Every structure is written in structure tokens, then in C-alpha cells.
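INFO batch 0412 | record 1 of 1 | parsing
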Amino acid sequence: MKRKIIMILLCGVLLVGMTGCGSKNSENSGETKNAPKNSLATKVKIGDYVAYNTGEKNTYTSKAEKTGYSKDQVFETTGNEKWRVLNILDDGSVELILEGSVGTKYDKGLYLKGINGYNNAIEELNNISKIYGNGEHAKSSRCPKEEDINKLIDLDTIVNHYQNEFESDIDTSGSREQTFENIYKLVNKFYGMEKTFGDEKLVINSKFTWSSGMNSFGFETVVTDPIKLSILKSGEHEIWLANQQIAYSENPMMGWSGYNKQISYFYMNQFSSYKGADMVTVTASLDGANVNRTVEVENDGYLKPIVTLDASTKCSGGDGSSDNPYTLK
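INFO prediction complete | emitting C-alpha cells
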């Protein structure tokens, strides 16, 4: 009887050694209380590499009439993309995010321009990202949003940062998302206000304007975990986020006001943080009654898609490192 028990234990040890899929043990581990037994979600942690394959030559053409750009822009998968764990969902699904960034088939950023670019940006960014969700075990794919990046930020660190800067308390009694909303309201005096320009009523929802200082905190300041920080790295490229925002500015002394319709993006360098890329810039009288000028603006950025793997996905090997990513079955 004792011999049988010993043999079973040894087999268990050998199985872990052969597959490389041991149980996770890290502060970057996600919640897996509802994950299927022995699923990928029970093995991986945030930042791990996963050998997910998108397949080759999945393509999407972003049409000029959608983006406002002068020509169509073609995106195509190579099957050589590298993926890392971004998040582990309660149901056991695992969100992967692309390492680095991707551009068009010809390695250019996605150009968006003017009102068409602004109105269609989220749809186009998600449509492009969908071609990366055709691989085995994937159930969906999309463009990241500000809210996805916020999950990597140390909430206590950013709260302390702005409480000290503005010498004002921030209510942290609600959810993580509500705490971020409270931060935005503190540092951006126009956030959430309704403004009228001619016949158009707009709610100012830009979180990251020059006046707010939210565009300059630097991810290095508020993401203290080096693994999480490395997930954000994207080379030299700005990364589009699937968020529209409206930024407001005014100059009472000069008697003018204005707004910018923007698409959010982020980048990683010495002064890395969120930004807003202008699509439409409007200037008006201080009270907004008379619109003086409307300008359509062109900007480009790269993509960093998120792929969600089905909760039933299992690990077949690897150790989660860049050289030996977890393989799937």
C-alpha cells in the first residue's frame, strides 16, 4: 500500500516536470475561483508569455471613408506575434496582450483624421484587433481601453501622488473605477461639465489634458511592478486606445474657448503616460455662442490588441518565460 502511494506521488511530480505547467504562486496571480480545474487560468500569472498563434494572413482593410485618411490601410497577421498575460477573469478566461505593437501590413501606423476618424475610430480599432482573435482557443479580441491599462496601475500610489500634489483627499471608499473617476475630477476642473458650442452640447470627458496634469504622471511613477511595466512597453510607437474624449480649454483674457475631439492613446518613454490625439479642433467665443473655426486633424498610432482565451483552455508545456512560453491544448 505504501509503495503504491509513493508511486502516485512520483508520477505527479514527473507530470509537472514534463509539462512545465505548475501551479502559479505570485502577487501577479489573478482570481481563479470560478476557473475550471486544471485550466490555463490556474497556472499562469500576469506577465507570463503564452504561445498563442493568430494564424497567418488574417487581413482587415480599414477603408478611407471610415478613417478620414487619404487611402485604405491594410492589416495582416503573421503568426509570429508574441503574447503575454494581461488579466485573468473570474470565469477562468485569460486575457492576453500583444508584446510590442503592430501596424499596417507595410509597418505604418493607423492614420485617423477629422470627424470620420473620430466617429469611427473605436469600431475600426476593434475590427482591426479582431483579426488577431482567429487562433485556436480564442473567443474574442479587441483594442485595449484606458480601463485595461488602469488595471496595471498601483492605485494607492497614484492616489497618494495626487493627494499630495493638490493637498486634497480623494475618496477611495468605492470601486477601483470610481476611485479613478474621483482622481479625474480632482485634477481636471472641467471634467464632467456640459458646454455648449453653437447648437452642439458636449460633456467634457477628457481625463488626460495638459491642464489636468494627468498626461505627465509617468507610468514609471505609478506602476512599481517591473513585470507590469514591461507589459506596457511598445517600442517607439504610440498605441491607440478605444476611447473617445472631448477636451475643453478657454482663455478669458483673450475671450475665446474651444474643444478638441480626441482619440486616446498611450506611449512608453521617459515621460510616458496617456495622451489624446486631436481629430477635430474647434475655437469659439468665450461663451461658446459663436464658433469661429473648425479644423480637421490627422494623427497615427499603432495597435496592441487584447485576445481573450476560452476558460476551458489548458496548458500543455512551457514555463511562461519569453524563451519557453506556455503552450496550449
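INFO post-check: DSSP finds eight helices and 17 strands in the chain.
INFO record closed
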